[in-house]
Amino acid sequence: MLFELQILGSGSATPMVGRHPTAQVLAVGEGRYLIDCGEGTQLRLLEHRRRLSSLRVVFISHLHGDHYFGLFGLLSTLSLQGRQEPLLVVGPPGLEMVLTTQALHSRMQPSYPITFVPVDTEAHAVVYEDALVRVWSLPMRHRVPCTGYLFEEQPRRANLVKERLPPGLTPTELGQLAQGHDLPADPESGRPALAHADVSVPAAPPRRYAFCSDTVYTPELADLVRGVDLLYHEATFLDDLRERAATTFHSTARQAAQLARSADAHRLLIGHFSSRYKQLDAHLEEAQAVFPWTELATEGLEVSV
Q1: Catalytic positions, please?
Q2: What is the pLDDT of residue 176?
Q3: Helix/strand/coil (H/E/C) assignment for every residue in 26-61
């Protein structure tokens, strides 16, 4: 099943040509989940041929503009397109008030239901769940209440092995086995009882993606994302500016790599680069010196897990 992340924007607060504010889209099976929605996100979705109507849920990390200023425009466009399906918006307290105030003064009346789910930004808890994913909040330490998100694929059923199946099974019996059930003995055919475990192999472990938004370096996060398949962590500065990173509640490329190494992550993406850096080679070198399996979260990058 598809489990793919695309980077729509990896810049920080100050605009820069060719680098857009934070936004990502995670595709899991048929589900599409938007993570942060900086200014211009809907245009980035269109550029990458991502249908706006396919979004199920929007997750916002915090109320700094480079992470959510594009959301009201996106909600308005969905209404202009006549969307009917409900949309869930998950984010920190205050987000609903901001958006409803904008809607009130612009007289925007959505054509679809919008439900807001406030997140306790100091807790590690399940904030959303459907048939495809379970999503946990990750406490960040930033200048305003901020949360990251851990996306965990729902467990998949074991796979039937054709060569282990006895002949003569009916479609109903095959369906029962596919659902994970054992089959009782069939006296008429003389077939003995059939255990699901005997004709299947376990499914691959659920895949996980952790999005660590703006935060000062927080080593204890490693325990919450232990063994994650893909970790995104902000790397606003290089390590020579780690004191500035601390005072602005941001992280360096080296610190992001240290967290990935401590968490035994499989892969690391770094992003949210300060506009002072026109080139990003130094970020990659600094991070890879600590955690070799690091990539830059550059515009348009697609990563399959």
Answers
A1: 66
A2: 84
A3: EEECCEEEEEEECCCHHHHHHHCCCCHHHEEEEECC
pLDDT of amino acid 13: 92
Q: What are phi and psi of 299, to 5 degrees?
A: -55, 125
Interval 274-297: pLDDT, tens:
999 999 999 999 999 999 999 999
- Comparing CA positions, the residue from 98, 221, 205, 218 lying closest to residue 155 is 205
* C-beta separation of 112 from 85 below 8 A: yes
d(C-alpha 8, C-alpha 283), whole Å:
19
Could you tell me the residue ranges of all domains in the chain? 3-155+206-299
Q: Work out the end-to-end distance of the chain between its first and last CA atoms, rounded to an integer number of angstroms.
A: 10
* H-helix or E-strand spanning residue 77: helix 71-80
Collapsed DSSP state (helix, strand, coil) of residue 86: coil
Q: Which residues of 52-80 are buried (b: 16+ CB within 10 A; e: fewer)?
A: beebbbbbbbbbbebbbbbbbbbbbebbe
Residues 248, 217: contact at Cβ < 8 Å? no
SS3 of residue 274 by DSSP: coil
**Range 104-132 burial, b when 16+ CB lie within 10 A, else e:** eeeeeeeeeebebeebebeebeebbeeeb
Query: How many CB atoms neighbour CB 173 within 10 A?
Result: 17
Q: Nearest 5°: phi and psi at 224? A: -80, -20
Give 45 or 187, the one with higher predicted confidence.
45
Type of residue found at 94: G
- The CATH number of 3-155+206-299 is 3.60.15.10
Residue whose pair of structure tokens reads 């996100």 in the numeric block: 41
CB 67 within 8 A of CB 42: no
| Residue 138, pLDDT score | 98
